[in-house]
Amino acid sequence: MSVELMSADGPRQILRDVNFTVGAGEIVGIVGRSGTGKTTLLRVLGGMVRASSGLVELHGRADNLPGTVVTVFQDYGNALLPWRSVARNVSLGIERGLGRAEREQRVADVLRLVGLEGRSSDHPWQLSGGMQQRVQIARALAVEPRVLLMDEPFGALDAITKATLQDVLLRIQAQTGATTIFITHDIDEAIYLSDRVFVIAGSPGSLIVQEPVDLPRPRTQLETREHPRYLSVRHALAEALREETA
Ligand SMILES: Nc1ncnc2c1ncn2[C@@H]1O[C@H](COP(=O)(O)OP(=O)(O)OP(=O)(O)O)[C@@H](O)[C@H]1O
Fold first, then answer.
1. 239: which strand partners?
2. How far is the CA of 34 from the centre of ligand 1 (A)?
3. What's the rounded Cα separation, in Å, for the pair 180 and 173?
4. What's the whole-number mean pLDDT along residues 75-95?
5. Which of 38, 43, 52, 245 gets mutated to test ligand 1 (max ligand atoms within 8 A of its CB)?
6. CB of 117 closer than 8 Å to CB of 147
7. How far apart are CA 166 and CA 162, in angstroms?
8. Atom of ligand 1 nearest to the CA of 37
9. Cis omega before residue 204 (within 30°)?
10. Residues forming a β-bridge with 70
């Protein structure tokens, strides 16, 4: 797939020949320097931007079924509606199509998954940044997506909250089996969470590495990061990113 977008000087190629397949239930982390087109790629996968050549297929179909692909943004502060309670933010994507009892049950279930069961009647501004990001993740999960796309989901959080949410995400993904594709600037986060790590490089951006992680699950913050395989994947990714900078 390739993507061209309009700039002030006319059309500009943003991504060139980015072709890959992601298996159902797989977790893929995308890393790469700023401006290489990672967010654009995620937008194409989410159906928000159209590829100028090539296509995105989900289970062999090019038309993304609404609700099957959901995106979580880094900017949780703006993603949540401040006048709505936590529960009503989470129910945003399921207000049509589900009866009230089923909807309330679904909201309660996903809030429990992200560890916010006691905060359903709070408003976003009454929560910490990490909690607000959990609300956004809960809202995405409420529609029971087959594909979860996340653009630097933990980028704005402190290291301890980030580690906690990484583990929340792994637990949820193991339970829901959602195919998960996320962007991060943190190589360690990419390895810790993923089955494969993609490196996007250049301008226009292309997919230069698809590194299998091959670390056992369930993963833990200490043991996984001390595993010899972890270090070799880290080395390979650092080399790929360094070569690109050189
Ligand atoms: N809507 C748009 N119209 C025109 N050009 C765009 C648009 N969105 C992004 N671009 C351009 O596409 C290129 C890639 O941007 P993108 O946000 O995808 O990169 P990125 O790898 O996610 O960067 P970062 O890591 O800094 O978030 C940039 O040159 C940007 O200016």
1. none
2. 8
3. 8
4. 92
5. 38
6. no
7. 6
8. 18
9. yes
10. 148
**Alpha carbon distances (Å) from 211 to 151, 182, 214, 238, 239:** 19, 15, 9, 12, 12
Selection from 147, 151, 184 nearest residue 68 by Cα: 147
Rounded distance from Cα 79 to ligand 1 centre (Å) = 19
Domain 3-68+145-244 homologous superfamily, CATH = P-loop containing nucleotide triphosphate hydrolases (3.40.50.300)
Residues 75-99 have a mean pLDDT of: 91
What are 207's two structure tokens? 């997919």
Amino acid at residue number 127: L
Write down the ipTM of this complex.
0.95
Asked if residue 72 has pLDDT above 60, the reply is yes
pLDDT for res 246: 56
In angstroms, the CA 124 to CA 80 distance is: 7
The amino acid at residue 57 is E
Mean pLDDT for all residues in the chain: 92
pTM listed for this prediction: 0.93
| pLDDT at residue 65, rounded to an integer | 62
Q: What is the pLDDT of residues 200-224, one digit of tens each?
A: 999 999 999 999 999 999 999 999 9
CA of 55 to the centre of ligand 1 (A): 19
Rounded Cα–Cα distance for residues 109 and 76 (Å): 21
Measured CA to CA, the distance from residue 66 to residue 51 in angstroms comes to 18
How many whole angstroms separate alpha carbon 181 and alpha carbon 45? 9
